[in-house]
Structures are given as C-alpha cells and as structure tokens.
Specification:
It is a single chain. By secondary structure, the protein is of the alpha/beta class. It has a domain at about 80-205: 3-Layer(aba) Sandwich (Dna Topoisomerase Vi A Subunit, Chain: A, domain 2). The protein has 8 helices and 7 strands. Helix 1 (about 10-20) packs across helix 2 and helix 5 crosses helix 8.
C-alpha cells in the first residue's frame, strides 16, 4: 500500500488521533507515524497491529505482585523464580519501574506493583491501587521488609506515606529508597548505577 500526502481521509484522521493518544506523542509526531505506517510495506504495518492485539489478548497481571505476565503463567517470572528472597518486597508504582530496578541487577527480592499512585486531581484514589493485596501479603507473615520505591515526587511521596500507614498494623520493617534519586524525577529514567545506590542506601521510612 502507498499513500501520497493530500487531503486527509477519515481513516487517516482516526489513525492520527489514535496515535496522538499515546504518551509523549504530539500532533506532529502522530502525523509522521501515521504517514510512515501508510507508506511502509503492508506486512510491517500489519505485524505491528498483530503484536498489539496479541499483547492485549495474552498479557495479564501477576496474581501475586501485579507485574505483567502471559495468560498461561498466573505468576510472573520474578514470582516464579525460587532464587528470589520473597521476604523482601519492593513496592513500585508501575511495571516499567520494576523493569528499571531489575536492570540495575542488584535486587534479589520480589516486588509489588501498585498499578498507579495517588493523584486526587486525576481521580486516582486508594481504591484504584493494589493496596489490599499488598496488605494481605504482609499479613500472611512471610514478609520481613517492605521497600517503598515510589517515584521521588509529591504524588510518589504521598503514595509511600499511605502505604506505610496501611502497613502500620503489621510488624514489617518499612524502608524507602535513598535520596540518590533526584526529587521530582522518575525511576524509569534513572541509570542503573543510580538505582543500585538508591537500593543499597535505602532507609527506614
């Protein structure tokens, strides 16, 4: 299929609008991506569509930590790894934060993904986070330390405070990442050395 620039059709408008909803993609970038997809070979564009469809159909949240996993594996690769220390749980906001910490290569515990952070102005409250399952994991008695690894900004700090309050009725040790991470930053953009230092220098919350 080929496409020459000209009057935009309804289908192209819808494609641009859909691409423009992706994070970090502005109107101009959405137009460039749309034109690229229309000009590239059919198999390349359709392979992207198939990959998106397969991911939406096959990817689920881990029944233990809420990281991403494939439908045939109720537990993610981290939770299935018997070499991990299940008594140390690192709490992160999103799966991408978990992946960033894993790239640092220094953490041997397990994780809990909140699937968000407190953001009242965006309508995200405690009920939208996986706080109940986290509390249940800790109350089960196998967890000795919870590391709060929310992002070092106002909303992340508020989320960490809420987690600590929810776990206040347990005997678990609560720590947080050291402030080697820049305030207002995001875990996914930190390099592995910075993340390794933050993990090793974590402090009681």
């Amino acid at each position: 299929m080929s496409y020459e620039s000209g009057t935009m059709s309804g289908a192209v408008d819808r494609l641009v609008a859909a691409l423009g909803k992706l994070p970090g993609i502005g109107a101009k970038s959405a137009e460039r991506l749309a034109h690229h997809l229309l000009k590239c070979p059919d198999e390349e564009a359709l392979a992207l569509a198939d990959a998106i469809r397969a991911a939406k159909d096959q990817i689920r949240h881990c029944e233990v930590c809420f990281h991403l996993t494939e439908a045939q594996h109720p537990r993610c690769a981290v939770c299935r790894d018997s070499r991990r220390d299940a008594s140390v749980v690192c709490v992160v906001e999103q799966p991408r934060d978990l992946l960033a910490l894993e790239k640092a290569g220094t953490f041997s515990g397990v994780y809990h993904v909140l699937l968000g952070r407190l953001a009242p102005l965006q309508g995200i409250g405690p009920d939208q986070l996986t706080l109940g399952p986290l509390h249940d994991r800790v109350r089960a008695g196998d967890v000795r330390e919870v590391i709060l690894a929310t992002n070092p900004n106002l909303e992340g700090d508020g989320t960490a405070l809420l987690v600590s309050q929810i776990l206040a009725d347990t005997d678990v040790k609560i720590t947080r990442l050291a402030r080697g991470l820049a305030s207002g930053g995001a875990l996914e953009f930190a390099n592995k050395e910075m993340l390794a230092d933050a993990l090793s220098g974590r402090q009681r919350f």
